[in-house]
Write a structure and sequence with these properties.
By secondary structure, this protein is mainly α. It contains 10 helices and no strands. Helix 4 crosses helix 9. The chain is globular.
Length: 228
């Protein structure tokens, strides 16, 4: 448990860097934007692998009984979360987290101006429902709490950075997914990052359901969904 908590702490600390402009900009100035994002992505993947590896070695302590509907929640929530994360990262979004720069926000911003954070939270909560044990509560609950708690911080940072422009940009989107669409302030459209995210999510989901998830995490989502 100690190694698992340490790995989770390092992961959350690592992902606090983008919310610290002074540190992030200093690293980008020293390394270059492309090198910074490449190294950051590599280290993030390695640390995430450490988190899951250490979690699998923690004793299983059940908190609630499993049921087929719980697995179906994951089957719906996980791809949705992945789609939002991928689309958010590869779309221009001056209002929130993104690896691309530009003035014109991507189509994903019509759904929510914080797609990466919402995607991560939805993915985590979807896994939490289907994994009713203590380590999953700490792992996925920690991920979701961290993502949702980061939204006010990014809102404050975007307001300060964009100034008067923030109000105009924010008027056409919303924090809560689809709130701006339902209120008529914007409409859903398509673009290349959305198409790429859809294809990437479909490919990853098919691979995981075809045996990738079982090979990595010793759990077959489809089997769990039909086992009860």
């Amino acid at each position: 448990m100690a190694e698992f908590l340490l790995a989770l702490f390092v992961f959350l600390l690592l992902h606090s860097i983008p919310a610290m402009p002074a540190i992030r900009e200093r690293l980008i100035a020293r390394l270059g934007r492309a090198t910074y994002f490449s190294l950051y992505s590599l280290v993030s993947i390695l640390v995430l692998g450490w988190v899951f590896y250490s979690a699998l070695n923690v004793d299983y302590i059940p908190l609630w009984d499993p049921a087929a509907w719980q697995a179906w929640v994951t089957l719906i929530a996980a791809p949705t979360g992945v789609f939002l994360v991928v689309a958010g990262l590869f779309s221009v979004n001056p209002l929130s987290a993104s690896i691309r720069q530009g003035a014109m926000p991507g189509a994903i911003v019509a759904i929510t101006r914080h797609p990466v954070l919402w995607g991560f939270a939805i993915w985590a909560l979807g896994h939490l429902v289907a994994n009713g044990d203590l380590r999953s509560l700490i792992l996925f609950g920690g991920f979701a709490l961290f993502a949702l708690a980061s939204i006010p911080m990014l809102e404050k940072r975007a307001r300060r950075r964009l100034g008067e422009k923030w109000s105009r940009e924010a008027a056409a989107t919303s924090i809560v997914p689809f709130a701006a669409v339902l209120s008529g302030r914007t409409r859903i459209r398509g673009d290349r990052p959305l198409a790429f995210a859809a294809v990437a999510t479909a490919a990853l989901t098919l691979w995981l359901l075809a045996g990738g998830h079982a090979a990595l995490f010793y759990a077959d989502p489809l089997l769990l969904a039909t086992a009860f």
